[in-house]
């Protein structure tokens, strides 16, 4: 996966991200001095909340990835800690590699390396997981755009926001399988038309039996994705509180859907540059000064990266310490060496007082 072509693409994408951040420092009132001043006066309590919400984000992502992988491969031998460790590693890697390369490489490689499933199943589990992650902000994009443009009121935007989530739940419950079956059947028919040899059989029963596409499982993943999205929103607002920015919670709630939707067109590591400009542009439409939005966007990048690094160091340090202190199996000979001669003779040779062997 890490071919020469991907290496060149990674370097160029990182350069684009750095250039976009440099533009923020050039064309907006944000300065390096302001950023350092904000860092020195952060609210420690809310920084702790950012770290906690970052860990929650990693845990939810690992849990959802684990559910998909186990359903897909029917292999549930790996512990939750295994998936969490690789999710932490993947989130570190995407800080320097484009997300679709970093996440796919680390997670699919873990599935293949530890013989959980094939490489193709590992790649599919990552793509399916990411598809659900991006689905939520896209669904919530219409009320977000209308609210930011001032076309609807806050109360109506919240009503539509909740209505879309409930409607999505209803659609999954009622039409999830029929839509999938219809799509696959049409693809099957097209394949038959293009094929010289006619393919017999039907796909409906096979589709219904696929565990990963079941209605109940899809609903579970959907609400886990919603919970992950809410946690991401709270993390961003904790950054606002930590830096004492003049940004309201409702502004974060609706702006974040535009920021995350921008990940679809982003080619930079961890959406570097694209995310910052999405924050600046969206919040500017809500009347937030550019100096506030710029400092907030860059500060969020710094705190989030620091949180992931800190969580990784703590997690791997605890894992290393646990490995060192874990009790090791002791051999039979070693155990018997600490016993008395009488006990050894009885246990090994079955000798008893007064002679004679014993069974």
Note the main attributes of this structure.
single chain; 359 residues; mainly alpha
* Major β-sheet annotation: none
Number of helices: 15
Mean pLDDT: 81
Order of helices and strands: HHHHHHHHHHHHHHH
Structural class: mainly alpha
Question: Whole-number radius of gyration?
Answer: 27 Å
Question: How many beta-strand runs?
Answer: 0
Can you put this structure into words, describing what you see?
The protein is mostly helical and 359 residues long. It has 15 helices and no strands. Helix 3 (44-73) packs across helix 4, helix 4 crosses helix 13 (290-325) and helix 8 (154-194) packs across helix 10 (215-243).
Topology summary:
Blueprint: H1 4-27, H2 32-40, H3 44-73, H4 80-93, H5 99-113, H6 119-139, H7 141-148, H8 154-194, H9 204-208, H10 215-243, H11 249-261, H12 274-285, H13 290-325, H14 332-336, H15 341-349
Helix pairs in contact: 3-4, 3-6, 3-10, 3-13, 4-5, 4-13, 5-6, 6-10, 6-11, 7-8, 7-11, 8-10, 10-11, 10-13, 11-12, 12-13
